[in-house]
Amino acid sequence: MKTRSKSASPSPKGLASTHRKAWLVFLCSTTVVTGFAQASDDAKFSAYRDALADGNPGEFWVDDGEDLFFKKAGPKNASLEKCDFGLGPGVLEGAYAQMPRYFSDTDRVESLEGRLMTCMKTLQGLDDKQIQEQYLNIHYLNAAEEDNRVSPLAQLATFVASKSSEMPFQIALDHPKEQHAYELGKKTFWHRMGAMDLSCAHCHAVPGRVLRGVELPVMTDPERAGKVMGAFPAYVNKDGNVRTQWWRNERCLLAMRLPWLKTGSEIDAALILYQVKKASESDEKIAVPGIKPRA
Ligand code: HEC
Description:
46% of the residues lie in helices and 6% in strands. By secondary structure, it is mainly alpha-helical.
């Protein structure tokens, strides 16, 4: 297991300065601040949501992710703009709606984050160690709850995913490796594991389950899965950070006292695929960046 350190101070790193200014103006707005002072937690969240309705801070991640995507980097001094997310090199529109999916060049089923890392290798020439140092270390620190350090991998993922907004997930499972990944995800979801002998299904397949006053989403219900999965990457108010599908699964695995979920791993893609397949059985549309009071 890795050690997780927490950061106490919010880091505006990665936010463009114009955005930062707008954001500070927003934070200092008296209506918002006084509104918070007396409100109960739930009223606070809904006031916050309303206040943010026209300005989801997750948009910063989209903009910063776009800058990163088109920035030349790595030993090959190339950008990621020719990355093929399944619909052809550089085609972003609708690509996330069909991911995780099988890629013949790697002969694997890859999640969005996994595919971004593949393109960092093939297009930019980064090796595993460089990806670990430049992208995953901060990404993993960022997985500490309420840690608001910004992960460049999450920024990239938010940008690419935003290009599928307004579209429903379309998960066909045409390739045998996709069917295998789906079955692996299903098995992982339903299998009781770890010292606590819990499965994901224990908390997310039974209607009406409540934990710490929060109703747990039934991820086997297509409408609910559609709303939940279609909102990731989401700006999470409680954390002041954007969280991806990987992050959420990782948080729950940690709560189950299970080992680290490696970003881009087979299990990572499988768990996402199982849940977005459910989502694809509804008409719910992707809305990225999502915004959630907590996640
Ligand atoms: C002990 C109960 C428990 C188990 C086991 C559990 N979760 Fe969770 N899960 C939670 C809680 C609590 C939340 C947060 C709900 C909230 O605050 O909105 C959550 C949230 C989620 C969400 C996001 C919901 C949203 O509205 O954004 C997903 C997706 C999810 N879990 C997937 C999983 C997966 C996959 C597993 C198995 C690897 C799993 N969970 C295991 C309790 C559990």
